[in-house]
């Protein structure tokens, strides 16, 4: 059964319990450092609050709204790759990228106007 983000339920449960154990240990250590006593249930409750606060930190401070430059670069590169893969062999120059024209006894060779000398172009 899938929960979210493609994570299987068992993987999600493992990550959740590992994170909760981490926060419980952090809270327990902090309480020891301050000389405070608490029941395991109280420590668990405080750990849950700290964990939720940690999860929502980005939303509370606007970090989730800032575009990730790496993701923007990936989107740009994927678009460029898609456009390159969609190109076809230029039918006007048969993929050579050059056009040869004759005028009397003269011959002229130039870059293909349609594909700009690449030999491939958009369909
Ligand atoms: Zn061409």
Write the layout of secondary structure elements.
Elements: E1 2-4, E2 7-8, H1 9-34, H2 40-55, H3 57-61, H4 69-86, E3 88-89, E4 98-103, E5 106-111, E6 120-121
Antiparallel strand pairs: 1-2, 3-6, 4-5
Helix pairs in contact: 1-2
Bound molecules: zinc ion.
The site of zinc ion (ZN) has 8 residues, from loops.
Helix content: 40-55%
Structural class label = alpha+beta
Radius of gyration: 31 Å
How far apart the termini lie comes to 42 Å
What is the number of independent domains? 2
Strand order of the largest sheet: 1-2
Summed up, the helix count is 4
Reading the helices and strands in chain order gives EEHHHHEEEE
Low-confidence stretches: 1-5
Small molecules bound: zinc ion
Q: Strand tally, please?
A: 6
Could you give a short account of the major beta sheet?
A: 2 strands, antiparallel
| Strand content range | 15-25%
Oligomer: single chain
If you average the pLDDT, what whole number results?
88
Shape: rod-shaped
What does this structure look like?
A two-stranded antiparallel sheet has the order 1-2. Helix content is 53%, strand content 17%. The protein has 2 domains: 2-66, no CATH class; 72-121, no CATH class. It has 4 helices and 6 strands; from the N terminus they run E-E-H-H-H-H-E-E-E-E. The relative contact order is 0.08. With 123 residues, the chain is of the alpha+beta class. It is rod-shaped and about 100 Å long. Zinc ion binds at residues 90, 92-93, 97, 112, 114-115, 119. Residues 90, 92-93, 97, 112, 114-115, 119 line the site of zinc ion (ZN).
């Amino acid at each position: 059964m899938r929960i979210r983000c493609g994570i299987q339920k068992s993987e999600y449960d493992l990550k959740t319990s590992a994170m909760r154990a981490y926060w419980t240990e952090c809270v327990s250590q902090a309480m020891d450092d301050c000389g405070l006593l608490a029941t395991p249930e109280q420590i668990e409750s405080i750990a849950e609050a700290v964990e939720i606060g940690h999860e929502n930190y980005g939303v509370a401070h606007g970090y989730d709204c800032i575009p990730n430059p790496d993701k923007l670069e990936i989107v740009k590169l994927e678009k460029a790759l898609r456009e390159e893969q969609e190109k076809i062999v230029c039918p006007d120059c048969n993929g050579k990228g050059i056009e040869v024209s004759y005028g009397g006894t003269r011959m002229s060779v130039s870059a293909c106007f349609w594909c700009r000398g690449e030999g491939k172009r958009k369909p």
